[in-house]
Amino acid sequence: MSRFRTRQGLAPGTARxxxxxxxxxxxRLLGLGAMGAxxxxxxxxxxxxxxxxxxxxxxxxxxFGFSSWSLNEEASKPVVEAIVADWxxxxxxxxxxxxxxxxxxxxxxxxxxxxGQVTGAVQLDIAWLGALAPMGRLLDLSDAAARxxxxxxxxxSGQYEGTQYGLPWTTASIGLIANSTLLDAAGITEQPTTIExxxxxxxxLKDLEGITPYAAATKVAQLKDIFPWxxxxxxxxxxxxxxxIGDDASVEAVEWYKRLYDDxxxxxxxxxxxxxALFAQGRVGFYDDAVIGKGATIAQASDPALADxxxxxxxxxxxxxxxxxxxxxxxxxxVVDGEGSDAATEFALHTTSDTATVADYFERxxxxxxxxxxxxxxxxxxxxxTTEWTERITATATPGPFWHLTQNAQxxxxxAQQVQAVLVGGSSARDAMNAAREExxxxxxx
Amino acid sequence: MTPLIxxxxxxxxxxxxxxxxxxxxxxxxxALFAAIVCYPLIASLVTGFFEQSLVLPGxxxxxxxxxxxxxxxxxxxxxxxxAVFTLGATAIPFVLGFxxxxxxxxxIRGSGFLRGLFLFxxxxxxxxxSFLWMWIxxxxxxxxxxxxxxxxxxxxxxxxxxxxxxxMLAVIVTKSWASFPWIxxxxxxxLQTVPRELHEAAAVDGSGAIRRFFxxxxxxxxxxxxxxxxxxxIWNFQHFDTIYVxxxxxPAGSTETFAVAVYREAFHGFDLGRATALGGxxxxxxxxxxxxxxxxxxxxxxx
Lengths: 446, 303
Hints:
Chain A is an alpha/beta fold. Helices cover about 45% and strands about 15% of the residues of chain A. In chain A, strands 1, 2, 3, 6, 7, 10, 11, 12 and 13 form a nine-stranded mixed beta sheet that branches. Chain A has a two-stranded antiparallel sheet with strand order 4-5. Chain A has a two-stranded antiparallel ribbon with strand order 8-9. Chain A is globular. Chain B is mostly helical. The longest helix of chain B is centred in the N-terminal third of the chain and has 31 residues, at about 75-105. Chain B is flat, with a radius of gyration of 26 Å. Chains A and B meet through helix 1, helix 3, helix 11 and helix 19 of A and helix 1, helix 11 and helix 12 of B. Chain B: It is found in: Cell membrane. Chain B: Belongs to the binding-protein-dependent transport system permease family.
């Protein structure tokens, strides 16, 4: 008899019929666990979190958060970090800085805001205000805005349905930037002003070895850049509540974009960050960017002379005399109602309107200020690139067609997905744009 | 009633049967399971019957509308893409892992070092692996295009992640690279349980290497191989990070699997109702696979 017998007369680990858990049962339980895990894996991420509806927290607290994608980008990170550090030491407050990459920022912010995990000041793209303001978590900053000395146009970029949720940090536009050195090398003596001239210029650039003539967005993240081209071809995109994407003009624009893709004039697998990297290597003739593009691109360029070669180009038009299309662009700082919101409001006001701060911000990142005083600062007023950009591109810029809608991000993604399907040959431009119109209409009706 | 002389009276704490005691021990785990698995699961399934936004408050009951929309919309293409990815990302690492396990089991020199070396891809976090391969496959400054251009195999850069045909292949290659080591380890362990005497006896009987593989080696490792394949299949069926980082489901949805589609619906489209409906359909398929796994596991343990 084994000396390891138990009181029941069985060795440890020996299954006893009718009592205890048998090995088979254990395996079954493990299987049930696996089933549960499979289901949970599939679904639990979508479980409603409940979120916290109201503001909550001590508004007068001296600790608050600051969410910013600029803290995630090489060029802007040290500049914004310095602003935060200076304000912390000057005002004896503590700022918890949080950052996400630009392309994931809206999703991350939405989730955290819904879960009540965001406090303080939040940097926003002006296109996102419509998505976040309806959540009811942002403070009305009208009083602070009145103290900032912002221009009227800039203030508008921080408003949603008449309420001033955002203090404008920078306001400009998205347009084309060209490498004049490459244009010279390709024999392009004048900036193209029409689509036809633009295409000719791209074909001339294609003859240069290793050059991407136009680093247009072909990844979903920035394919919303197609909107100004659609407008260039004459589409209104939306009229009131009626989506007009799918009209002849928008289809023609996408067919043209597809032709550029097929002819190798634009490249596969490009988003804004790829375009900047390629431009910084001197391998791109034209690309779409905001005015910040100059600073962001120069920061990663090995050739300092590239800065002098960068020129803003108004978007070519369909017929001479048409107004060049450009998309308004800018950042605002909003404040989340709750913990530290008073101090966060002061921080947002200082960051966006203190003349010394915004002038320094401009000098280091080429981001134009939004206050009359800031714009009048010699560093800003005498900058040739920014002045040219403002006069030639921002002058005719318009807001995104769907910015006012909560579903703006989804709508832009729908169009981007459909355009991408055309580019890779999965759909005709007509079918894709009709499908986009139907889907967008459905989204707008929700 | 007079107690029987000599009969041991159960003391306090000894009244529980083994079954009851075991169940008692599992209670904390079961409670945790209910809180972090059952509740979200049920809540999510319920959400599938509502129109609910991630951004806006409130929701409205829409019955089976979300499920109907999912079946009429994304479900079938996503199922096809999930199947292609899952099959590819299971078959390739299995063949590779098994081949390497056979090589290592044959007693080649340096097998210990090689075993450690081959495990390297497995210990790197999945997102890091994905970024690594994203740089390799990048159309405009990727290593792969650079190498192929220098070798004269291509004249113009290939958009590996930007074309539907190559994007799925790139995703499968990346996932295979990350997961072949664990299959190699599993199969190596199984191979080491096959008695060497059987090989020797078969060799004495005149069996060649291929015949010995099919008559001695494969029967000895077949059970483990089946479980490894099925587990890898289930994991790939749920896989997210490699695809999301490399292609985000693109181009034009050509690499969009269930995991990515549910994420996109929920966190890009902010449509929780449709996301959970799609997730519910996905879960039904997964449960079938898990049931198959359990059946195979039990059969293997009975052997």
